Structure formats: structure tokens, C-alpha cells
């Protein structure tokens, strides 16, 4: 049983010049068509996506918006989880995120660095403060970045 | 049914080959960041070049013993599909691709960049892991042009494994002009020796036509030229050449040309 397909699959290769003959056995299996179609769809998706982005994608330098997601009180300070979204047309590397918390007359600055924020994408991190950011006024912004390539 | 079963086996081999050839790249950090950082036009050119390259490669080493253009195209497409799916799945498992990222340009870039070497692996696996030994059909066809094509694919393939890394740039910065020249000489010598002297399997039929000088001029030099071209192309694709002084670009090309030359020389072993 197991032998049979083996010999069948080997026979065309045993005759390298099979194409020259009519070769009635040589018929493209349905599975070959199916996998080629899958490949075609994926290739078309990748190429189409890239082409669309190259032609009509956003232009301009990275423009990074920093949003506050959530504040959690921990034994080691208040953790403010923030999210950076790049509205610009190019990816940014080594994005420095800074948060300045003004509460009760005092000011505290906290910062972190994100490796990459691609255009139209987001990345997240956390800022740690001694006081509750929910009480005072928290200013979030990206202070700088390097070009990604 | 039997044909389908046979093809299913070939397809599984293709997945195995894709995995074998592409996992070093899938596990390389620079590939992830380059996937999103590579300029879109360059990525587009890269993807558009991948297809004819796969079709050509399929002609020599498809995972189906085929001879017709239709079948080469089908094989190439299937190989790309295999590479794409494998890259997508593994990158997701590795946590490189977040769920919300797959259909952004960053996600597609990451997958597409890894899909190309995986697809080459998928195509090669058909031959490497197949039940029949190394076929003889493709060698009979190898004229000078196809020889160059295979060298180019071999060069691109091996160079691609290291081209995305920071080390290429770093090595170029560390090397002085004399070291660069020495590396050029070593690359050319290795290319020549690997292809024409060492007697690796797969080179038996290679034209050892005439004397040393003729082979050197007719085959080794074009081979190294192709290797350098591939290096430069990959460096350009990855944005390594932007704003860099010409002599540094030359050094980088030579540095990457070293693995590319070995790849060109050993293309016959693999393909």
C-alpha cells in the first residue's frame, strides 16, 4: 500500500524527458493548485500592502502621541502605563518618552525609551512616580527619537 | 489521489526546508526591526525580485520534478506561501508579531522579509530532502548564464543570513583599506578554489575548460562580480548605504561580499 504512491511519484522524475512525450499521467494535482493559490494570495497581499504603503502611505517625519492607559498603585510607586502612537509617515527608533507630574507644588519627571515605533503603530511602557498621577497634572510627550534606518 | 499524496509529502518537505534555512533569520533581531524600518519602495522591489528568482530557482531545484513554466510558477508561488506562513506563525509564537500588528505595514514587512529566505529554503528542500538523489537534469542545462544565475542566488542567499546584522557595518568600520584588499583577494581565491579545485560533489560536470587563466577570467571573476553586486543590493535594501561615504560603502560591500562569494561558490552544493 505504502509502496504504491512512492513509485507513482518517482516515475516522472525517472524519465526526465517525460515532457517531450504526451505523458498522460502528468496531471497537476489539486493540492498543487490549492497551495499555489494560497501562495499567490499571500504574495499578492504582501506586495499589494507594500505597494499601497509606498504609493499612498502617510508622509512626513514620525509624529508620536503619548497616551495614558492606566495608573496602578504598587508598593514601589505609582506605575503609569502609557502608549506611544506614531501618526507620522516614518518609523522612529529609540523614542524617548517623558512624563512630568506636577502635584502639590512639586514636580517629578520620569522617562523611558522605546526601541521602535513603526508608523501607524503603537508601543507601550511605564512611567513610575512617587505620587499619584491621578491627583496632579501629568504631561506626557515624546522628547526625541532617532531615524529607524 | 496519489498525485495529491505525493504533493503533500513534497509540501511537508518544503516546510521542513523553509524552517531549516530561515530560522537563523527568524531569530535575528535586526530582521524584525528592518521589517518595519526598510523603506517601502525598497521592500517592494525586493518582493518583486523574489518572485522571478523563485521561478528561476524552481527551474533548477523545484519540489516537483517539473519542466514547464506553469509548474515552475506554481512551485514558486507555493514556496512563497510556505515561507510566508512559516514566518508568520513562528514570528507570532516568538512574540515578535503582536495580534494587532499582523495587518499593519510593520507586520507585513516583518513577515515578507523573512518569507523570502524561507521560500528559497522551501524550494531547495524539495531537492535536498527528496527521495531521489541529486537530479542530473538541471546540470545538463547549466550554461554560463544559468551558472551566473545560480551563483547570484547562492550569493544572495548566504549573504542574506548576515546582511541585516549590525556587525556588517561594524566590521566595515573596523577594517582598514589594506585589510579590505586582503579580504577581496581571499574572497576571490576561495571562490575559485571552492568552485574549480576542491572537487566538491556537484561540480563534476562543471566546465574545467582549459587552463587556469581561462576559468579564472571566464567564471571566477564574473562570480565575484555577481557576489559584490548582490552584497551592494542587499546593503542598499536594508538602508545601510544611506548617507555613508563611498569608501565605507565599498568596504561594507567587500565585507558582505565575503560570505556572498562563498555562497556563490557553494551554490552548486546546495542548489
Notes on the structure:
The complex is a heterodimer of chains A (149) and B (271). By secondary structure, chain A is of the alpha+beta class. Chain A has two domains: 28-57; 64-147, Lipoprotein YajI-like (Immunoglobulin-like). Helices cover 26% and strands 43% of the residues of chain A. In chain A, the strands form two sheets. A three-stranded antiparallel sheet of chain A has the order 1-2-5, with no helix packed on it. In chain A, strand 1 and strand 2 form a beta hairpin. The longest helix of chain A is centred in the first third of the chain and has 27 residues, at 30-56. Chain A is elongated, with a radius of gyration of 29 Å. The model of chain A is unreliable at 1-25 (pLDDT under 50). Chain B is mainly α. Chain B has two domains: 1-139, no CATH class; 142-271, no CATH class. In chain B, 77% of the residues lie in helices and 0% in strands. Chain B has helices at 2-26, 29-37, 40-61, 69-93, 105-128, 137-141, 144-162, 166-174, 177-196, 212-237, 246-270. In chain B, helix 1 (2-26) packs across helix 5 (105-128). Chain B is globular. The interface between A and B is large, with 46 and 57 residues.
Walk me through the topology:
The complex is a heterodimer of chains A (about 150) and B (about 270).
Chain A: H1 3-14, H2 30-56, E1 64-74, E2 77-86, E3 92-103, E4 106-117, E5 122-129, E6 137-147
Antiparallel strand pairs in A: 1-2, 2-5, 3-4, 3-6
Chain B: H1 2-26, H2 29-37, H3 40-61, H4 69-93, H5 105-128, H6 137-141, H7 144-162, H8 166-174, H9 177-196, H10 212-237, H11 246-270
Helix pairs in contact in B: 1-4, 1-5, 2-5, 3-4, 3-5, 4-5, 7-10, 7-11, 8-11, 9-10, 9-11, 10-11
Amino acid at each position: 500500500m505504502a509502496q504504491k504512491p512512492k513509485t507513482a511519484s518517482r516515475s516522472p522524475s525517472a524519465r526526465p524527458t517525460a515532457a517531450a512525450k504526451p505523458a498522460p499521467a502528468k496531471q497537476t494535482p489539486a493540492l498543487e493548485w490549492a497551495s499555489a493559490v494560497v501562495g499567490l494570495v499571500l504574495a499578492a497581499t504582501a506586495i499589494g500592502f507594500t505597494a499601497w504603503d509606498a504609493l499612498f502611505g502617510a508622509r512626513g517625519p514620525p509624529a508620536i502621541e503619548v497616551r495614558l492607559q492606566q495608573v496602578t498603585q504598587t508598593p514601589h510607586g505609582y506605575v503609569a502605563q502609557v502608549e506611544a502612537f506614531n501618526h507620522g509617515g516614518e518609523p522612529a527608533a529609540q523614542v524617548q518618552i517623558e512624563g512630568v507630574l506636577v502635584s502639590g507644588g512639586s514636580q517629578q519627571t520620569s522617562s523611558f525609551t522605546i526601541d521602535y515605533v513603526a508608523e501607524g503603530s503603537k508601543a507601550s511602557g511605564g512611567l513610575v512616580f512617587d505620587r499619584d498621577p491621578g491627583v496632579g497634572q501629568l504631561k506626557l510627550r515624546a522628547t526625541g527619537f532617532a531615524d529607524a534606518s | 489521489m496519489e498525485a495529491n499524496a505525493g504533493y503533500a509529502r513534497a509540501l511537508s518537505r518544503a516546510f521542513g526546508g523553509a524552517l531549516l534555512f530561515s530560522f537563523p533569520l527568524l531569530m535575528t533581531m535586526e530582521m524584525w526591526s528592518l521589517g518595519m524600518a526598510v523603506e517601502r519602495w525598497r521592500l517592494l522591489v525586493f518582493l518583486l525580485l523574489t518572485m522571478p528568482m523563485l521561478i528561476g530557482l524552481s527551474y533548477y531545484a523545484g519540489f516537483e520534478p517539473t519542466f514547464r513554466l506553469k509548474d515552475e510558477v506554481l512551485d514558486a508561488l507555493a514556496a512563497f506561501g510556505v515561507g510566508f506562513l512559516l514566518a508568520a506563525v513562528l514570528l507570532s509564537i516568538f512574540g515578535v508579531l503582536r495580534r494587532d500588528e499582523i495587518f499593519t505595514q510593520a507586520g507585513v514587512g516583518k513577515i515578507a522579509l523573512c518569507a523570502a529566505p524561507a521560500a528559497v529554503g522551501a524550494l531547495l528542500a524539495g531537492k535536498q530532502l527528496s527521495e531521489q538523489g541529486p537530479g542530473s537534469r538541471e546540470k545538463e542545462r547549466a550554461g554560463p548564464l544559468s551558472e551566473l544565475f545560480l551563483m547570484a542566488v547562492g550569493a544572495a542567499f548566504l549573504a542574506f543570513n548576515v546582511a541585516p546584522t549590525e556587525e556588517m557595518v561594524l566590521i566595515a568600520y573596523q577594517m582598514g583599506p589594506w585589510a579590505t584588499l586582503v579580504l577581496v583577494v581571499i574572497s576571490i581565491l576561495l571562490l575559485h578554489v571552492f568552485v574549480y579545485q576542491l572537487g566538491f560533489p556537484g561540480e563534476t560536470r562543471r566546465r574545467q575548460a582549459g587552463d587556469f587563466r581561462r576559468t579564472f577570467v571566464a567564471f571566477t571573476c564574473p562570480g565575484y562580480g555577481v557576489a559584490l553586486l548582490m552584497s551592494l543590493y542587499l546593503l542598499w535594501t536594508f538602508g545601510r548605504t544611506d548617507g555613508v561615504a563611498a569608501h565605507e560603502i565599498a568596504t561594507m560591500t567587500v565585507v558582505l561580499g565575503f560570505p556572498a562569494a562563498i555562497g556563490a561558490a557553494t551554490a552548486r552544493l546546495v542548489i
